[in-house]
Amino acid sequence: MKILSLLLLLNFTVFFNINAQDPTPDNKKILLLYETQQFAEASKYLSQFYTESSTDIQLINSIAYSYRMAGDFQQASIYYNKLYILDTLNTTALTNLAYINNQRGLYKTSMDLYKKLLSIDSTNIGAYTALANLSRREKDIISAFNYLHKANTLQPTNSNIAYEFVQLCLELNQSDKADSVLTIALEGDPENANLLHSKAKVSEEQKKYKEVIELSKKLIDLGEDSQPIWSLMARAYFKLDDFESAMQVYTDATLLYETWGEMDYYYMAMSCKALKRFDEGLEFMEKTLKEAISPNTGFYFARKADLLVDLNKPSAAAADYIRSFQYEESTINYFSLAVLYDFNLQNKANALKYYTLYLNKKPPTQEQSYIEYAQERIKALK
C-alpha cells in the first residue's frame, strides 16, 4: 500500500514487461530509489536500458522524470523532447518541457510550449496560470489578465487563481470585476484571509467604507492583523468622518507597529486636525514630510544643478544648489556654488559668502585641494 500510495502521489507509473526477452528494469529497485529520493541514481539505472532507437514511451518518460526530479533539467529536457517527437499530442511531455524551459530561464520557449499545450487541451488550468505569470514577467498585463480570466472562468472557486486574478483587476482599475470574482470565491472559502483582504481593498475602491471596516475586523478576529489591514480600517473610518475611531485604530495598531508610511501619517495628521489636537497633528505632518522626501533628494538637486551648469544656465543651477541644502548639506555643493557665483555669475559677494560657508562646514581631508583653493579665493576676493 505504501508503494501504491507513492505512485499515486507522483502521478507516475512504471510498468515494464518482466517476461520480455530484452533486459528490463527492476521495478522494485526503481520504486525503492524513488521512495528514498535517489532520483539521480534512478536516472543512471534506467538509462542503461535506453538506446537511440528506443521507442518505449514508458521507459523514456521514466528517464525524463528521474532527471527532472534530480534537478538535471538539461538531460530531462532531452528525454522529454524525445517523448514529444514520438507523440506530438503528449501533454505530459509538453507540460514538462514548458516547465523545464521556464526554470532554465528560456521564457519565450516556455510560452510557446504552453500555447501548444493549450491548442491540444484548451481547459488546462496550469497552462493558463503559467502563461499569466510569464506574461506578467514580460510586463504584458493585458495578456496576463486574459489568461487568468480564462483560468478563473474554468475554476471560479479556485482561491489561488481568484486571488491572483483580483490583483490584476485592481491594477487595471476593474474593481467591479474583482468584486464579482471574490464573491464567488468567498462562497467556497469564506475564511480565506487573502480573499478577505482583497475584498476589503476592492470595497475601499468602491467607497464601501462600512464594508471595509467589517472585513478588517473579521480579519483581525481571524488573527490576520497585519499593518495594511489596520491601515485599511483606519482610513475607512477617516473617510466616514469618524476621526475619533480612526485615531483609536491607529493608536491600537501602534502598539504592534511603531512606524507607518507617508499616507498613514497624513491621515493621522488630518484626523488630529479635525479633533483640534493640533500639536499632535503637527508632529504627524512632520513625519509625513519625512516619509515623503527621499534621503537622496539633496543629492539629486545638486546633480541637476551640475547639468544646468553644463547647459550654461548658471542662475538656475545656483537655485538648485541652494535647494539641495534644504535636504543635505554636502560640503562640495557649497564649493560648487561658490565657484559658480565667482566665475559664471560674477557675483563676488555671494562667492565670498559660499567659499566661507564651505570652510566653516569643515570639509573632509579628501577635499584638501578644494580647501586650499577656497582659502586663496577668499584672500583674493577680500
Mean pLDDT across every amino acid position:
92
Largest sheet: none
Which blocks of ≥5 consecutive residues have pLDDT under 50? 1-21
Number of helices: 22
Distance between the termini: 98 Å
Q: Might you state the CATH topology name of the largest domain?
A: Serine Threonine Protein Phosphatase 5, Tetratricopeptide repeat
Q: Which class of secondary structure composition applies to the elements?
A: mainly alpha
- Please name the fourth-level CATH homologous superfamily of the largest domain: Tetratricopeptide repeat domain
Spatial extent as radius of gyration: 33 Å
Label the CATH architecture of the largest domain.
Alpha Horseshoe
Topology:
Layout lengths: L1 H9 L16 H9 L3 H9 L9 H13 L3 H14 L4 H13 L3 H14 L4 H13 L3 H14 L4 H13 L3 H14 L4 H13 L3 H13 L5 H13 L3 H12 L7 H13 L3 H15 L4 H14 L3 H11 L6 H14 L3 H13 L7 H14 L1
Which terms would index this structure?
disordered N terminus; Serine Threonine Protein Phosphatase 5, Tetratricopeptide repeat; mainly alpha; 382 residues; 22 helices; single chain; 73% helix
